[in-house]
Amino acid sequence: MFQGETAISIDDKGRLAVPTAYRELIAAASGGRMVFTYNPFEHGCLWLFPLDEWEKVRDQVNALPSVKAVHRALQMKLVGAAAHVEPDGAGRVLVPASQRTAAGIEKKAVLLGMGSKFELWSEQAHLAKIRQTIGEDEITDAMLDLKL
């Protein structure tokens, strides 16, 4: 399970160094192989899955009936844009240029461990999201059961 927030630098070639704390976990789970794809719900963010977790998500998304436009959009943003990556000898992975551009990810970014996947945020989008508070009118029934 991945958790935590790490400030990340993207080098001139578009690579990020996977934090050392996660490298062994990723290697054990998927031999180091990972998949970048779009976060279909929030601008300024990409998702990064270990391969084994990605395959579960991919299969669920592909099982949706493609007769609905929203299903096709989800399939396009997740499966159609999926890019397989493997770390180099220094533990760096290449963030696809098209995905970096679409998400507005430049030199400074934030990597969040979100359980079974990572989220890679542009520094600006992450800051804007973190500054937003959750209002009382947004609290769901499931959230009421949390002991925070």
Automatic annotation (TrEMBL):
Pfam families hit by this protein: MraZ (PF02381)
Keywords, ordered alphabetically: Cytoplasm, DNA-binding, Repeat, Transcription, Transcription regulation
Record CDD domains: MraZ_C, MraZ_N
Domain of life: Bacteria
First-listed, main subcellular location of the protein, grouped into a coarse class: cytoplasm
Domain SpoVT-AbrB: 5-53, 82-125
SUPFAM superfamilies registered for this protein in UniProt: AbrB/MazE/MraZ-like
Compartments (UniProt record): Cytoplasm, Nucleoid
Assembly and interaction partners: Forms oligomers.
Family statement: Belongs to the MraZ family.
Xref: HAMAP family: MraZ (MF_01008)
Protein name as it appears in the record: Transcriptional regulator MraZ
Provenance organism: Tahibacter amnicola
